[in-house]
Amino acid sequence: MDANISRCGYKRNEREAFTNLHYYRVQIFYQVVDLIIQEINNRFPEADTELIRCIACLDPRDSFSRFNIDQLMCLARHYHEDFSTVDCLFLPQQLSNFIVNVKCDPQFSTIANLGSLAQEMVKSGKSLVFPLVYRMIELALVLPIATASVERVFSAMKIVKTDLRNRMADEWMNDSLVVFIERDLFLTIENEPILQRFQLMETRRFQLLALPQTSTTTISQSVNF
């Protein structure tokens, strides 16, 4: 990596020698990082990016090295329904006490993610000692899932509600979306209980016949439309 190479695209007498390390770092690695940053900026608006920075302050790795009370207070102000004005008055002091407490507790020194942090707080009883901090950790755990779930639903709506189905009722569309979005869960349900449920809903002129033992394949085909 320390070997010198000549820069292409220049005249022979103007070429400047530089190392392979410099070439791969500046010409390739930095370029890729710039592209990733540009895509992230295009993908996420400034408000979402700020929320991600705030959530990162709860990262327990490296002994809570990213912990920042000001940014966590910003996160609390974004969600005033979860943190009232009174909560925001007590939250800074509770955050200060929390970070001092967990840094002195060896049980929290090996925690590497928010999920494990929440579990350890419940196990040690700190979720009751620092209820506002624990509420913030719960919020941080839910936010990425909630954001992804909303995007997932809108993507599913584009598939389910096509031009041929654009007049379906809201209840029907909602039921169809649930089946489509949660198809992994519905694949575990056998056909026979579904048939029995429909059969018992009201008196019918004929009995619904039991399907052959291909329930998983049948449901998979129906779920995937």
DSSP helical segment count: 12
Mean pLDDT: 77
Instruction: Write down the domain tally.
Output: 3
Overall form = extended
GO molecular function: protein dimerization activity
Protein name: HAT C-terminal dimerisation domain-containing protein
InterPro entries: AtLOH3-like (IPR055298), HATC_C_dom (IPR008906), RNaseH-like_sf (IPR012337)
Domain HAT C-terminal dimerisation: 127-185
Short summary:
The protein has 225 residues and is an all-alpha fold. The chain folds into three domains: 4-43; 46-148, no CATH class; 182-223, no CATH class.
Describe the 3D structure.
This protein has 225 residues and is an all-alpha fold. The chain folds into 3 domains: 4-43; 46-148, no CATH class; 182-223, no CATH class. The chain is built from 12 helices and 2 strands; from the N terminus they run ββαααααααααααα. The chain has helices at residues 20-43, 46-56, 61-64, 69-78, 85-103, 114-124, 126-129, 131-160, 170-181, 183-186, 191-199, 215-223, and strands at 4-6, 17-19. The protein has a two-stranded antiparallel sheet with strand order 1-2. α2 (46-56) crosses α4 and α4 runs antiparallel to α5. The longest helix is centred in the middle third of the chain and has 30 residues, at 131-160. The chain starts with a strand and ends with a helix. InterPro entries: AtLOH3-like, HATC_C_dom, RNaseH-like_sf. Residues 127-185 form the HAT C-terminal dimerisation domain. GO terms for molecular function: protein dimerization activity.
